[in-house]
Q: What sequence folds into this?
């Protein structure tokens, strides 16, 4: 069951990315070429002490008890969109200019699991796809991020090299990104494990 769900998520992610690319690429450009030029696989690793402190702070403020890791991811997306598009990035006229971002919770060891294991070291795998004219600006904005505003220990940025399907399954990229989701759906340990941006209007 977890593997079937992982594949289902993977195919869904591939379709979201393909739809975005087809809306933005030029006619002579292949989907693979567009992805390799304008796509990024970014893993967000967290400082456990900072996360614990953030949880206490939000609890004291009676804030929602959502995943602190995804709270940080949401904050990062909004900050980068502000830098790319401006403070009015949420206005309807800018919706098609926003990056596509798929964010999934992962934990240590999931690539070797056959059933739900111990939840350790929560981190977030994200796939980003940019409108081509914002890609260089995005790279600059990433390099200028003030990590002290977040609970990150490290941000690992890798260019996307391929979105090709893996034999009869989804792409390796999408399958890897969502590999925890099937286990968590079957045996819920993390209440919030996925975000897709931009949010539907």
A:
């Amino acid at each position: 069951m977890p593997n079937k769900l992982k594949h289902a998520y993977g195919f869904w992610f591939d379709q979201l990315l393909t739809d975005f690319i087809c809306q933005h690429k030029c006619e002579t450009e292949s989907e693979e070429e567009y992805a390799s030029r304008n796509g990024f696989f970014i893993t967000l690793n967290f400082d456990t002490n900072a996360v614990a402190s953030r949880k206490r702070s939000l609890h004291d403020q009676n804030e929602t008890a959502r995943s602190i890791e995804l709270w940080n991811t949401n904050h990062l997306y909004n900050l980068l969109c502000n830098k790319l598009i401006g403070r009015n990035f949420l206005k309807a006229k800018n919706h098609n200019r926003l990056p596509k971002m798929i964010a999934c919770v992962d934990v240590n060891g999931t690539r070797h699991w056959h059933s739900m294991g111990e939840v350790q070291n929560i981190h977030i795998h994200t796939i980003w796809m940019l409108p081509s004219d914002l890609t260089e600006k995005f790279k600059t904005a990433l390099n200028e991020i003030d990590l002290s505003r977040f609970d990150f220990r490290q941000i690992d940025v890798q260019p996307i090299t391929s979105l090709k399907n893996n034999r009869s399954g989804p792409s390796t990229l999408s399958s890897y990104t969502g590999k925890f989701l099937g286990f968590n759906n079957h045996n819920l340990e993390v209440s919030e494990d996925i975000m897709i941006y931009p949010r539907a209007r």
User: Anything to note?
Assistant: The beta strands are 39-46, 100-106, 123-129, 152-159, 194-197. The chain has one domain: 2-197. The mean pLDDT is 87. The first helix runs from residue 2 to 24.
